[in-house]
Amino acid sequence: MARQPVRIVDIARRLGVSTATVSTVLNDKAAQGRISAEMQEAVWSTARSMGYQPNMAARRLRSSALVEDSIYLAVIASLETPFSLVGAVMLGVQSYAAECQESLQLTIETFRMGQLCALPGLHNNTRFHGAIITNTGLDDDAFIATTTFSMPVVLFLRQIAGANCVTSNSAESGERAAELMYSRGCRRPAVLAPLEMTQARLDRMDGYKAFWRKAGIEATEIWATSFNERSGYAAMNGFLSSDGQCDALFVVGDSMAVGAMAAIKLAGLRIPEDVAVVGHDDLDFASFTDPPLTTFHLPVFEMARDATSLLLQLLRSGVQPPVQRIYPAELVMRASA
Questions:
Q1: What's the rounded Cα separation, in Å, for the pair 229 and 306?
Q2: DSSP single-letter state for residue 326
Q3: CA 280, CA 137: separation in Å to the nearest integer?
Q4: Euclidean distance between the first and final Cα of the chain, in Å?
Q5: 127, 74 in Cβ contact below 8 A?
Q6: Which residues make Cβ contacts (< 8 Å) with residue 257, sequence separation at least 6?
Q7: What angle do CA 227, 228, 229 make, to 5 degrees?
């Protein structure tokens, strides 16, 4: 027999307060009702423990086209997220949604990197029942680490203590890139990263540098203004034009690697004979660069399916948080290294 949905009146009875008090808190109008912070926390805590799910259809659009019993899931990504990542995540989420027995409604929510805290609906259940969050900045990660959300949240490609996540060991990718280049005889390493730092990019960079440091060598840092081909080209061109030298270049994202490779060849250097290049992400074009790019492949599609499954388990209280699942990155050997 299907479990009866938890109602506002059920929460009110559990707490021994009026339904108006519970309704005011759950509809994010506590300030107007002058309800204490302690009572707000008690309402949200009780609602979570009882498995309360608001009628999102009525709240969002009041449209007869929406199914009242649907579960609303959001994929939350910064506006700076590469389209390739968003597309792969959405394909994975939609693939799982098409197979499961739940009635799911999917939405994409965006924010400026560093401004996740201001996203509407994230602090309460007014827009979605659960969320997959990806491509956050370091300030966003600090916000997540100190926030108790009123709904299940799964982090994607980032790991924070106490939070649910589906991710990879990014530092290990950097270490393996360095190990490969060291085994090829390279001894003048450099790493190219964007100023728009995320946890994954920072971990890749740190892992790469840590390996070289153990070998008694400091890797040179090259900084790009953004996470794209043009910025990768400009950063590498500037480095080489100012007499910078390296024979091993690890780029924390394939898009920047394409630009960096163009700058290397423009300088009259050969890849990999003069400069070995390793990227990360294994984007569709990586096998068609000249030479084909050695990079790391992440099973983003499968990881997104897993994140969706985990989110639904958390909504059903099928697992106890935090749940952290770590996928390995596969080194794809091609001709650039």
A1: 30
A2: E
A3: 18
A4: 59
A5: yes
A6: 192, 232, 251, 277, 278, 279, 289, 293, 295
A7: 145
Instruction: Give the DSSP letter of residue 18.
Output: -
- The HSE-up count of residue 122 (CA atoms within 13 Å, CB side) is 22
Q: Tell me the sheet residues that pair with 153.
A: 131
Give the separation between CA 175 and CA 204, rounded to whole angstroms: 8
Output helix, strand, coil percentages for the chain, rounded to the nearest 5. Answer: 40, 20, 40
Distances (CA, A) of 282 to 222, 247, 279: 21, 22, 8
Structure tokens at 82: 């590469």
pLDDT by 10s per residue, the chain, length 337: 445 678 888 888 899 988 888 888 877 666 666 788 888 888 888 887 887 776 554 454 444 344 456 788 999 999 988 888 888 999 999 999 888 877 888 889 999 999 999 998 887 667 888 999 999 999 999 999 998 887 899 999 999 999 999 999 999 999 999 999 999 999 999 999 999 899 999 999 999 999 999 999 999 999 999 999 999 999 999 999 999 999 999 999 999 999 999 999 999 999 999 999 999 999 999 999 999 999 999 999 999 999 999 999 998 877 888 999 999 999 999 999 9
pTM strictly above 0.85? no
Residue 71 burial (CB count, 10 A): 21
